[in-house]
């Protein structure tokens, strides 16, 4: 995508110097997000000021249904939350001339920070090398807000905040959500969190009680199982095909749920990673998502849509010797190329979407966000107020400078296309290496459409010691053989949703996200050697 | 304290350019912390690398007792935690030449950050005005670690991390803890967290189960109660005097605990804010701490020592017209002026200390740390791995640049003395205003020795409508009268440990942390007027 010309946009008098960079956004309603912002209440930019995500939405939701209530699924813990009781006093703070000796927050004069700067890429010049040469330095001062230079500064970001996050970044995230998803009900909301790992744990505490079982892919994100187990939660794995969990299998599990056999009441929660799933790399088609959503409606299942890899959807794979598919020409083309989310299907407000900056900006920021119905978001934000509080204000300020004041929504989409093309190249590298180095009668795969993972199926029935030796034993021998050959891949069994379920396949997970291209090639070559030796080929 | 001369220190070849600024530290063993650092394993500085806090301790603990085990108090949730199961594969990563396609972490080439800088005060020139004039800019590059420029950089800090935090900052925090506290048992450890609010919630999940009661001051931090209530935890308030909770009262409560009357098993947890307590401003004397610790030993109570205000211990209050007490002359004098912590008394490893940067550096960083026995710290860090993960790497990198590479331990102590003197002036301002403007026969107080809060006792028995009107009703009338007069103070009832307990006093909490001096004076003047009107004086 060629770097678009920058155009100045007026509209939000609280926001100076904002550039809307991209005329390519013109065909879609997001073309002038910054310009269409409502006149904002300045109080919300202040220290630990509350704000309402509803004020940041730009589309009209009149006539759309209201979200269902989830009182029957929410735990007592979630329902009894009242948030921070001292905030009751906050309603008096707007009285003109009032002096408050109420809030125990430090004065910013005691923060030993005068300025913070980050050097970041200009739009369209995103590579590390280009950033070194043409990057710009964004600076936030200590009192930029009071001095009218910006709506966010060190004195507010480095002080206490709200569990929902700062209004400054929450606005951006709300707009971005509206730009990417076509929300189907009226009362949706966003709230920031400290990342999706925390988000999933919070969701378990909101929607499950010890002894419960939840649904997930039969191979699932291992940290989700590791998080659930100590809370007394077990996972039921839904059998999958190349498009994700099978709706009929999910329906069967729920229709035939036997409390005594299972030792748990019927599940109320589906945890799914619809795009570039970890570990299988599987991306659910739009049809599959709609079918699974219908099963959720039938059995009144609440959905946790965990989507760290949503913007790691790549260009179509054309095979080892075919020309690459050119990148999307417009932002509209790019957005259209993304499989619609559960959030875009959800008419009931039964989806809590977990979004993350970890895979597309930086994991160390520990900033993510949640989109769900107002009831669920309010419960989530109240829990945050009394546990994680807000994500780091230092992270929030850095992200605000980059995303809102520097790139804007259009520039961020350009960045995402840049990431998409880079992952496409990495994915194509590992696939070419697999084509070249792996014995195709033993190792097979489906080219991943999204994410960081390549899921390699090993036909253990062709192992000379099978069936005398078990699948698990063959897996362990391959794993150790790989180490001997100087390559580490993750054994598929590490990702069992439930170790007590029967598993009759053997997989290894390889990531193409971290290593440089030449190392990926060499790693797969070693894996091929290891397999050949183990299978005595 | 005059700015000390800077001297270069050698010793840690991984850390370039570190300055140990302060010969004043000479009399205490911390005089050359940076120089005495052990030769560090370089692998621990890398992306998401594990580290062991034990490697960062510099004192010798041979001959000290081992911490007791807490298996009988830890919950099943805490005991069953295995951490992130994928880390089992990490042991193979040290094999020379191994290429890993294992870990699903992004490559730093995809982080759109080339440099991050902060402008901060030089040692001894700490005010905002001085920082503007003489502050220095600290810069972290993207690949400083690989380039040998620093042990911490953007490529590591902005990537995934460990629940315990980065080795770089955990080392500093461990050393600081050893410098400030005189630990009495062998196997203590530190782990970073996302702040003490999260730390307290994590502690409740580790040490209590729904239905439990815990002990705290009769007036306590309201957010602690707000956090505990949804978990099904109630608080028993221990009656206090000017030195904090009364040991005899605590012993009585526990000795005479009746499960049926209380509706809960005997408490196993004391939550206390020993220094500048919120809301009472009370600081427990050393003798009081030792006496309470003995009661904890007698009844096998585990202690959560929440100490955000530890370094807001101020100069002695000399009265409205006496000369100020000069600041501590040396770091040793400063450290000696601090009341010893529970951590320094604890021979059993029965204390989990929550430390925070919020009141002395910046709350927005969302970095705090926990000090406790290795068993408890390991359980805590495992829980973090699967919930909050590490504190923001952006925050950690900024703090590392400031605290480790720029100020060092001596410079940080100088900063803490600067904060101490500033809070002393603020405290003296509010006390002088109270002397001047409040009717002394109605409103009384004990000058706070630490913290942010001034706790004002109102003699409601002198109210013309008492006893016809209840204490609660008089409190509400004063609160609203204050608002009418343009000042907000927090009603004491907001801080009841347990609303069902009988409370026969009437207090208001005023903070001197936030407002400028002239506003504090005016606010107290208005409060005096409001009280006079309400009491018809």
TrEMBL record, chains A, B:
Gene Ontology cellular component terms for the protein in this record: cytoplasm
Transmembrane annotation, as ranges: none
Subcellular location: Cytoplasm
Aminotransferase class I/classII large domain location: 146-527
Top-rank taxon, per record: Eukaryota
Gene Ontology molecular function terms on file: 2-aminoadipate transaminase activity; aromatic-amino-acid transaminase activity; pyridoxal phosphate binding
Pfam families: Aminotran_1_2
InterPro entries per record: Aminotransferase_I/II_large, Class-I_PLP-dep_aminotransf, PyrdxlP-dep_Trfase, PyrdxlP-dep_Trfase_major
Keywords, sorted A to Z: Aminotransferase, Cytoplasm, Pyridoxal phosphate, Transferase
Catalyzed reactions per annotation: an aromatic L-alpha-amino acid + 2-oxoglutarate = an aromatic oxo-acid + L-glutamate
Enzyme Commission number(s): 2.6.1.57
Keyword check for Magnesium: no
Gene Ontology process terms (BP): aromatic amino acid family catabolic process; lysine biosynthetic process via aminoadipic acid; tyrosine biosynthetic process
Cofactor(s) demanded: pyridoxal 5'-phosphate
Family: Belongs to the class-I pyridoxal-phosphate-dependent aminotransferase family.
Protein name: aromatic-amino-acid transaminase
Taxonomic path: Eukaryota, Fungi, Dikarya, Ascomycota, Pezizomycotina
């Amino acid at each position: 995508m060629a770097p678009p010309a920058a155009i100045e946009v007026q509209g939000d008098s609280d926001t100076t110097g904002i550039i809307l960079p991209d005329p390519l956004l013109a065909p879609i309603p997001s073309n002038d997000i910054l310009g269409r912002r409502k006149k904002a209440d300045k109080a919300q930019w202040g220290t630990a000021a509350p704000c309402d995500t509803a004020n940041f939405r730009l589309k009209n939701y009149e006539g759309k249904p209201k979200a269902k209530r989830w009182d029957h699924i929410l735990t007592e813990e979630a329902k009894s939350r009242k948030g921070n009781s001292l905030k009751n006093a906050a309603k008096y703070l707007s009285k003109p001339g009032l002096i408050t000796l109420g809030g125990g927050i430090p004065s910013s004069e005691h923060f030993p920070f005068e300025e913070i700067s980050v050097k970041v890429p200009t739009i369209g010049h995103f590579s590390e090398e280009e950033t070194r040469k043409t990057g710009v330095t964004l600076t936030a001062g200590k009192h930029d807000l009071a001095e009218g230079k910006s709506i966010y500064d060190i004195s507010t970001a480095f002080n206490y905040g709200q569990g929902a996050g700062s209004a400054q970044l929450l606005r951006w995230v709300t707009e971005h959500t509206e730009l990417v998803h076509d929300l189907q009900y009226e009362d949706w909301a966003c709230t920031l969190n400290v990342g999706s790992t925390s988000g999933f744990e919070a969701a378990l505490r909101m929607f499950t009680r010890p002894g419960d079982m939840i649904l997930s892919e039969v191979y699932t994100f291992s940290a989700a199982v590791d998080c659930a187990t100590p809370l007394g939660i077990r996972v039921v794995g839904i059998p999958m095909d190349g498009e994700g969990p099978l709706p009929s299998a999910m329906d069967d599990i729920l229709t035939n749920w036997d409390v005594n056999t299972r030792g748990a009441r019927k599940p109320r929660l589906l945890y799914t990673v619809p795009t570039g799933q970890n570990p299988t790399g599987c991306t659910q088609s739009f049809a599959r998502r709609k079918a699974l959503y219908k099963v959720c409606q039938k059995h009144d299942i609440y959905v946790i849509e965990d989507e760290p890899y949503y913007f790691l959807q790549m260009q179509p794979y054309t095979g080892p010797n075919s020309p690459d598919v050119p990148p999307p020409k417009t932002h509209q083309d790019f957005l259209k190329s993304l499989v619609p989310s559960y959030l875009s299907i959800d008419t009931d407000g039964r989806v809590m979407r977990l979004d993350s900056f970890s895979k597309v900006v930086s994991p160390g920021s520990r900033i993510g966000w949640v989109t769900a119905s107002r009831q669920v978001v309010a419960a989530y934000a109240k829990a945050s107020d009394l546990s994680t509080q807000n994500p780091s204000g230092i992270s929030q300020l850095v992200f605000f400078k980059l995303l809102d004041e520097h790139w804007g929504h259009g520039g961020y989409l350009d960045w995402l296309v840049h990431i998409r093309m880079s992952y496409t190249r990495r994915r194509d590298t590992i696939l070419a290496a697999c084509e070249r180095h792996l014995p195709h009668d033993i190792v097979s795969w489906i080219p991943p459409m999204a994410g960081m993972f390549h899921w390699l199926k090993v036909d253990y029935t062709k192992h000379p010691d099978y069936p005398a030796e078990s699948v698990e034993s063959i897996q362990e021998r391959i794993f150790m053989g790989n180490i001997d050959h100087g390559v580490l891949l993750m054994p598929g069994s590490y990702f069992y949703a439930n170790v007590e379920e029967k598993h009759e396949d053997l997989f290894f997970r390889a990531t193409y996200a971290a290593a440089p291209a030449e190392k990926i090639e060499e790693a797969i070559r070693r894996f091929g050697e290891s397999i050949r030796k183990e299978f005595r080929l």
